[in-house]
Amino acid sequence: MTITITAFERSPDRGKGLARDMRVRWALEEVGRPYDVRLVSFEAMKQPDHLARSPFGQIPTYEEEDLVLFESGAIVFHIAERHASLLPSERDARARAINWMFAALDTVEPPIFERTLAQILERDEPWFEQRLQVLEANIRKRLDGLSTRLGDAEWLDGAFTAGDLLMVSVLRRLHGSTILEDYPNLLAYVGRGEARPAYKRAFEAQRAVFEASKGTA
Amino acid sequence: MTITITAFERSPDRGKGLARDMRVRWALEEVGRPYDVRLVSFEAMKQPDHLARSPFGQIPTYEEEDLVLFESGAIVFHIAERHASLLPSERDARARAINWMFAALDTVEPPIFERTLAQILERDEPWFEQRLQVLEANIRKRLDGLSTRLGDAEWLDGAFTAGDLLMVSVLRRLHGSTILEDYPNLLAYVGRGEARPAYKRAFEAQRAVFEASKGTA
What Pfam families does this protein map onto (chains A, B) (predicted)? Predict the structure, then answer.
């Protein structure tokens, strides 16, 4: 059974692994599943054949025989559910790991992603500095809660799960700011995620795509 | 087995059913599970016993014997996984329904929720009008994709699922704006969700909490 995902032909993050195909690649590497990648340009993402897979015109998508998925959270969950190692088998522990998946995407990522967007789209606006302060305060509120809960544990709830995979992916968007440095336990947590062999393989794979794209127009 | 959720003692939406306990109540009504509600004040949400359940100090939480969950998406998924009727049993259809759950929370809700927040927190800021336009354009981009995909179908993918439950919940935040009226099929879709007996029971239950709170200081 072949798995095919889509990714940016030329990622706007210049190979830093912040595009959402990275979390899917990482999950596939954690469970040891090979996959094909179909690269799409920004123009191709607006065309009918991509919109048939992804109604919002985004990457990544995931194809496996007749099944097509288009939300990175759902794709990571689908991979985690079908292979051991990304979700605990014990009933309550599994529910808690899934809870952390939703926490990463619905509570922690939104203010962090808003900051990324503002830095791209609002940098030249007269209010930019003031708005950045509001956004960073929102981010810190989330990180306060997360840092307190993590404490000195290695992962959020026992062994590494898909919840950690998504939380680390989300926190990585703060690299380049100094916010994460104010939370040494979260910085170390992100570092542990990035040190996993599966993470490194996924990172190199997406980086190779960007490197190859530099030779093209 | 007793299920206990938390909800605002006095919801800032004044009983309109926009707080995130509504989607959990709705899911519990769809599967016919009774539940207890512990009401919390904004002050109580910052206290250690609430933070022990909800690291980000939010509502709703969900308790079932020793299990505690604190993300509404994960709670709805937990309920859906343990009862028939909110997720299809066929493997691919189930994965697609879960995909719509993530689409509702991660792709459609963020710009809609940002608009709600901006209207409360940024109304007096110099950037408010311009930011509102940007947010509404982002919302319309999402609704364009959703409306095209839904077409004239009753629900997003076959029978009603937890994906529809969350998508309708998210779109309801647009009531009071004229945005949704530009998408007649989405407006009718929201209306079908709100017409479900389980929705109505959940709505009345959360509304009763707000009505009761009006007599208090």
Answer: GST_N (PF02798)
Q: What are the tokens at A86?
A: 């990304």
Is A34 within 8 Å of chain B by CB? no
CA gap A51, A49 in Å, rounded: 6
**Chain A nearest C-alpha distance from B67 (Å):** 6
d(CA B203, CA B217): 24
CATH number of B91-196: 1.20.1050.10
Residues 6+ apart with CB under 8 A from B116: B18, B173
A71–B107 CB contact, under 8 Å: yes
Asked if residues B103 and A20 have their Cβ atoms less than 8 Å apart, the reply is no
Q: Where in chain A is the domain with CATH 1.20.1050.10?
A: 91-196
ipTM of this predicted structure: 0.96
Q: Considering the domain A3-85+198-213 in this protein, what is its CATH number? A: 3.40.30.10
Delimiting residues of CATH 3.40.30.10 domain(s) in chain B: 3-85+198-213
Task: Assess contact for A112 and A173: CB atoms under 8 A.
Answer: yes
Token representation of residue A168: 């680390």
pLDDT digits (tens, 9 = 90+) for B41-95: 999 999 999 999 999 999 999 999 999 999 999 999 999 999 989 999 999 999 9
Residue B113: list chain A partners with CB under 8 A. 110
Residue A105, chain B, CB below 8 Å: the answer is: yes
- Chain-centroid distance, C-alpha B148: 22
Residues whose CB is less than 8 angstroms from the CB of residue A195 and which lie 6 or more positions away in sequence, other chains included:
none
**pLDDT tens digit sequence for B126-171:** 888 888 998 999 999 999 999 999 999 999 999 999 999 999 999 9
Of the candidates A50, A122, A53, the residue with the CA atom closest to the CA atom of residue B138? A122
Three-state DSSP at A57 gives coil
Longest pairwise C-alpha distance within chain B = 52
Cβ atoms A87, A80 nearer than 8 A? yes
* Spatial CA neighbour of B182 closest among B138, B158, B147, B216: B147
Q: How many residues does chain B have?
A: 217
